[in-house]
Amino acid sequence: MNHKVFLFGTLKRGCPNHDDLDLGPCYVSEARTIDAFPLYITDRWYSPVVVDEAGSGHRVSGELYEVDDKMLARLDALESVGLPRGYRRITVRIDRKGQEEPAQIYVKDREDIEVIHSEESGTYRDTRYIHHRERTRNGTEVVKDIQFFVHEPMSHDDVTVRIDSTRPADHGRAFVPAYSMGVYDNACRVRYGQISLRVGETENIVQYAGHIGYGIDPPHRGQHRAAKACLAIRPLVRRHYLRLIITTDPNNYASQRTLDRIGARHIETVYVDEDSPTFLIEGSRRKMRYVWDPDE
Which of 10, 124, 232, 278 could be disulfide-bonded to 161 (CB atoms 3.0-4.6 Å)? Predict the structure, then answer.
């Protein structure tokens, strides 16, 4: 039995996964969804994902393929169909050369996406995807270099955050690039503490350390300044992420209240791998993982 499948991302012609599955003979034509859907660049490998929210976003451009049962099974395996946070295959209407017809497409639910880097305008053109053969180098996770952005001091309520320094990627130790920032009063005369934004998706960052770390010095605690600092840096965060991970220890109740105040959502509590930098540096044995959408 043959199946019509609409592919929009790394399986298209000229993209990293196309030749791995030998999809060339299955190609039919270019096509476009009838309905609009959100198309995001997501998670550790910068994978393109269509979210199952018809009517939101843009009409998605891609390619129509006709595949047999064996190829469909290979596509399902690549897209982790049936696994936690994997894709689902649904039927949508597509426009092919002016003719409307049904085809299957791989989608995710929004709550199954932990990290969103950016939104595409309906056509996948992003070049950051990391192919499975390129995810480690000499036994070390690959980290991406980034463009650091210069930003004026950022404020929320009576707190102002100023970038103090930036740290480039350390490829040898798989340390991701980061911004180090000071948390001040609005006049930037009194320093309350610090906050950092880590830009990268190693296992340690996504599972244990999180993208944002903060600390308020003891004399300046009790005024919700950690939460205000997180809200202040939203313009910078949005240059890199639409959704990210923040973590805290289960016994750090003040940090949990901070995450509640900024609207972060607790997704799970995990045990920390004893070989991870988070365990070796902090000694943390468990971490509560939250997702945060800075626009919400």
Answer: 232
